[in-house]
Amino acid sequence: MKIRTRLRHPATLFFSLSFVIAILSWIANSYGASAINPHDGSDIIVQSMLSAEGARWMLRNVFVNFSSFRPLGLVLIGLLGLGITMHSGFVDALFRKLLGKNPNRSLVIICVIVAGMLANIIGDVGYIFLLPISAKMFHTVKLPPIAGVITSYVSLACAYSANIMLATMDPILANTTMQALAQANIISYTVTPLSNYFFMAVSVPVLTVVIYITTVKYLIPQCTTRNKLGSITLPSQGDMLSNSEKGSASLATYESRALRITGVVAALYIFVLCLATFLPNGFLRGVDGSILRSPLIQSALFLIIFGLGLCGIVYGFTVGHYHNDRDILQGMGYYGQLISQYVVLIFFASMMIAVMTYTQLGEYLTVSSADWIEGFKLGTIPTLFMFVLYVAIINLLMGSASVKWALMAYIFIPYFANRGLDPALVQCAYRIGDSATNGITPFFYYLPLVIVLVRQYQPTITTIHIINYLWRYILAILAVWLLMLGVWVICM
What we know:
The protein is mostly helical. Helices cover 67% and strands 1% of the residues.
């Protein structure tokens, strides 16, 4: 897939999409486009962004739309803590210690893929930490850092539902499915957070192989051709999976000593967190003594950021890179240029998402196009496959998995249940379609972060280039997941 057209800055793309959405909303509103919400029976009316009321709404909410962009605070604070670990040299030394003198590049790629899928256990934290760390890890073993960002991003976003443990989305989707069954008066089925567990657990090793092969065969050669990183020696296609001849530089004695001291401090920090959590009067427990609704869960991201920053500070002072508070503050600004680019990009991205939300165009298209799937007179498995593809396309218009399912469940759960299909399988099919195209939807909250991270290494890269990196992954993941789903249905 060659990109021959003149490409613009990613912010321009977000602005252009906002304008396109506004035009479409005006056209749809002119024709009185509306639908019935299958959940509560309310009207979904497409609102014109080009009307006087639409203009007033946008002017009143410019600052709110920007400041309420969901990952803004998480990303900014996360990069402050991560910046210290990078600036102090802690991450570099840790990787050289763990990878050794002759790192196995295949193992590094596999570790990044598996870490990406497992990171979904703790929600969106993986995007903030794993993406830049994967770039650093690939760089350490003489692989293109861009490939590290893309590989981890695919594992996080496009293989989102695959996991060997329950993730945050499992109980949310199961609860919506049960509500849809109750509304349709279907009592013969029960869906729990564990209903999709075995399918998604089996998906982990299968998708690891799929992502690994795609990374090795297509992504790394593609990134190697595009990247020009100065003094960094990138491998040729013939030896990109062989161990580096020089390997990672050995750790000096003082660096090894600093890592040991940092490890002790990290262990103490974890021990203090455990005491504050499990002691009867621990301050990380909820006021009612519970763990689920407690400062530990609500502040998990900050506790991780603080722990990483603490490790970076201890390592920096021990190794002699840091001498005073000014050095620490300089480390917090390590990602300063990236943060400024990110803020500019999300200004336009947040406006685009706000326009889509106000117009209700996504909800209207989701509900009104559902009849197209229900009109198919094919067998159960082909219809289920069409449903997966339908979800994958709708996912390009709506980013939130729970919001989409809150609309689709009340349509498709009764439809497939009346055809004798277990709602757990329908929910599983939804998760496949919703996950596979996550990486390329412009409404995905973490796409701007991926763009600015990649542009650190190749400033001319645009959103179209990133899609060019991702489309093979999406097709491969969809194909393999659909095959697994078909086998699963037959076996049941």
